[in-house]
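Quick one, T. Sequence first:
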Amino acid sequence: MTSKHSLRNPKDMQYAFSYFYYLIHKKVPFDLDKLWAKEIDINRDGYLNENELRTLAINVFSTPLKPTTFKEFKSDLYKTCMELRHPTPAPVIVEESSSSDSSDSSSSSSESSEDSGSTAAVPVIPATQTATATAVATATATVTATTAPKATTPAVDNNTLEVGQKELEACRIDLEVLKASNKTLMEIHKSYAKRTMYRTSIEGTDEVAFLMVDDNDNSTQTKLDGVRQRRHKFICLNDNINHDKPTAHLVIKVIHDFYESLFPFPSSFELPPGQTNHFRYIHEIIDKKQEENNKNNTFIYIFGVVGVMIVMLMWKRSKRSSNGNHHSINGIIGGVGNKSAAKQRSNKRYMIV
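Structure tokens:
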């Protein structure tokens, strides 16, 4: 059953198969920052030591890790670190041959002019220009000597270097170095991009039971007894029952007893016996539950208001009854006092008589 056809169609892809292929081939997006925080920089100190470099090399090149491979791996990162943190200044070379040649040519021309005498009209260079050329040549030689590169930071060797703990402390390899090393970054991406998001395993057909259920209850019972014996992990039953036949209920009972033998207790997703699902889409169930919750909240609100009103009425009635009893008691006490006063007056009359 798909979104286009109520029954199986040769051009449809089953939902289960599509979902299984998704689970098998789903890749983990490559993110070097997350890998650095979760898997590469294990001790969270911000740079890689010898042990962490070996773990990274194993994940990149797999096992067994050859010593030469690990050596080249550390050497490439160390070279990148040195070029990034300690760049070598480019030498500035100034050629002095042109200035010296010009001074030589001027002196030779002056000598030839002296030898030739008055045979040719050769211009004579003033002494000031000769002094200027000599000063320029001297300054050029001085600049060449002063601009030569200093031997403070030697150039990184192009060959494989022996990188130990001392070199790693001198130039620490951090996330910036990994990103700057194009060769190492490509190898890391090539290795980690193959990682799948979910761990899956493909089982053989021995763990799969595929049965066609027909109208014969005896043959269906025999097929399902074989599944009971072997306890397959995956069971697929195709319903080929003609439910119009009077014996269809016998086949249904066989299937029901079979599943009761495998799963005697219902899951939390099953409805109670006798109830069926009348909804087709999940949003319909959500709307129905929301409506029921609103009704229940309304009833609770009404019952709460009625209860509060009843309590208030009972409290007012009890207050009134307590006030009435107080007045009656005062009347009784007043009547008794009047009777005693009248009796005292009558006794006084008797005494006067």
